[in-house]
């Protein structure tokens, strides 16, 4: 049976009790429904045993309503342990101050790390964006280069075809020149031959005119033929 200290107080009739219950810490020696105790909450039901873990009430045992849902829980609060002495409260307050300061420093450090990480993430995002644009520009450059290579290949093929056409034309021109020279030489040869034949005819005509005047008509015809040549 729990022995009650003179400093213990009940909130059954105390209207000044704060409805906000203190934070708690698990304790296997003081937990669960206190069926062995005669105290009951406003629901006239046994209370649940808890240990405080807040400010100068740290480690003090107390009883509260056993209802699990917050809207059903009443404001009953019964302290089992009396308040600590002034010296103990001071020590506990100092410990909580150190704890709170460490938490504040930790939170401040986490905020600082968060800002640095956010900055790093921002820089990383910018780098990724720059890299994405660089890859896009590089892809465009590669495409332009391939297109330029294709155009250069087409130009080389066109130049090769043009050179081939020029060579063919040169050969054709050379052939034409040779053919022209051959035809010209042939024509010159024929003219020379015709001149020789003309001279022979002139000699024959002259001889015939000397030999026989009766061949005059024939001679005229031959002469006309020669003149036509």
From TrEMBL:
Entries under InterPro entries matching the protein: Znf_GRF
Sorted UniProt keywords: Coiled coil, Metal-binding, Zinc, Zinc-finger
Coiled-coil segments: 145-211
GO MF, one example: zinc ion binding
GRF-type domain location: 41-83
UniProt superkingdom: Eukaryota
PANTHER family xrefs: OS02G0467300 PROTEIN, ZINC FINGER GRF-TYPE DOMAIN-CONTAINING PROTEIN
Protein name (record): GRF-type domain-containing protein
Lineage: Eukaryota, Viridiplantae, Streptophyta, Embryophyta, Tracheophyta
């Amino acid at each position: 049976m729990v022995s009650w200290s003179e400093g213990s107080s009940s909130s059954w009739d105390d209207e000044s009790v704060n409805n906000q219950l203190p934070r708690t810490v698990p304790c296997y020696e003081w937990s669960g429904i206190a069926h062995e105790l005669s105290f009951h909450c406003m629901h006239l039901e046994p209370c649940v045993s808890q240990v405080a873990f807040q400010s100068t009430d740290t480690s003090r045992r107390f009883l509260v309503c056993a209802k699990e849902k917050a809207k059903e829980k009443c404001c009953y609060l019964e302290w089992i342990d009396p308040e600590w002495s002034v010296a103990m409260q001071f020590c506990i307050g100092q410990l909580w101050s150190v704890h709170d300061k460490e938490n504040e420093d930790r939170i401040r450090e986490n905020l600082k790390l968060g800002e640095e990480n956010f900055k790093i993430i921002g820089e990383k995002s910018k780098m990724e964006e720059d890299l994405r644009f660089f890859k896009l520009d590089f892809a465009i450059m590669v495409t332009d280069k391939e297109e330029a290579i294709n155009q250069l290949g087409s130009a080389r093929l066109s130049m090769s075809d043009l050179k081939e056409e020029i060579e063919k034309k040169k050969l054709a021109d050379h052939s034409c020149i040779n053919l022209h020279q051959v035809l010209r030489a042939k024509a010159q040869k024929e003219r020379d031959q015709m001149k020789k034949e003309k001279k022979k005819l002139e000699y024959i005509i002259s001889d015939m005119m000397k030999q026989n005047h009766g061949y005059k008509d024939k001679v005229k015809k031959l002469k006309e033929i020669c003149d036509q040549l």
